[in-house]
Amino acid sequence: MEGQLLMVYIFYNTDIIPYYSLIIFLLGLCIGSFLNVCIWRIPRGESVVFTPSHCPECNKEILWYDNLPVLSWIMLSGKCRWCGGKISIRYIGIELLTAVLFEIDYLRIVDMKLPLSMLLSYFVATSLFVVCSFTDIKHKIIPNKVTYFVIIFSLIMAFIFPGYTGKNTRVFGLLNSFLGFVAGGGTFALFSFAGRKIFKKEVLGFGDVKFMAAVGACFGLVPAVWFFVIFIGSFLGLIFGVFLILLGEKHFSSEIKFGPFLAIAGYLWILLGPELIDFYFKMIINYFVA
């Protein structure tokens, strides 16, 4: 108990937050580098664990000092050391994006004084958002390997560290994660079924259903999450779709990739979701009371 209190004191000590921020940022760069591997390999059926990093052009193995996040890309001027093939700037973009989002996750946990283990939940959810957004944009898929891993990993972590979903005991931690998984996937499965019946076609892919099940496993049973993610994700998708229609890029029956908008809405929940929900209900109460 004393060790736990010491960890909490160190973690929330404002004098050393900048040092932790630096560590979190560097961790985010490294995780972002791994997410790049997932985004490239998983849709192609390649292993993200056992196959060494290699150039997609010449297939030569990348040396460890050529695989440092951001730094190696700059030192190599965005080109392969062996064949001179161009390395997309997207790689450092995803590394920096992940690092910045991880930094925001950390500061959010500190600001809200949330359980320390919930930071891991935020990191896992953020990684899910990044990978699924880019694979959906590029390949029109939300990989099962990613969503299944996040679901299983979250259930295990919620049991080992109940604070992963904000609970105090292992049983309630696991139960909360499981109920979140069921509610998240179940809600979207109902939307998918209803959309198919109403519009006589697929309006929500089953990848979106599994994505929301994974989000639920991360956040636990928080009903406001589904309202927030569905409403904000749908609103963003609608605005984007109308914008493309006005530009002549799409028409009303065109398919729009929904995964990135769900991911953005999911991260907005981490960023300020509870405050927006509280603000919304206060407005409703004040309206009816007045």
Describe the structure.
70% of the residues lie in helices and 0% in strands. With 290 residues, it is mainly α. It folds into two domains: 1-113, no CATH class; 141-290, no CATH class. Helix 7 (170-199) runs antiparallel to helix 8 (206-219) and helix 9 (223-247) packs across helix 10 (259-289). The protein is globular, with a radius of gyration of 21 Å. It starts with a helix and ends with a helix.
How would a textbook summarize the main sheet? none
Counting DSSP E segments of at least 2 residues, the number of strands comes to 0
Task: Provide the β-strand percentage band.
Answer: under 5%
Average residue pLDDT: 86
Number of helices, where a helix is a run of at least 4 consecutive DSSP H or I residues: 10
Whole-number count of domains = 2
Q: What characteristic shape results from the CA principal axes? A: globular
Rg from alpha-carbon coordinates:
21 Å
Strand pairing plus helix content: what structural class? mainly alpha
Outline the low-pLDDT stretches: none
Q: How do the SSEs run, as a string of H and E? A: HHHHHHHHHH
Terminal-residue CA separation = 48 Å
Share of helix among residues?
over 70%
Helix-strand blueprint:
Layout lengths: L1 H11 L4 H25 L29 H5 L14 H23 L5 H22 L4 H17 L9 H30 L6 H14 L3 H25 L11 H31 L1
Helix pairs in contact: 2-4, 2-5, 4-5, 5-6, 5-8, 5-10, 6-7, 6-8, 7-8, 9-10
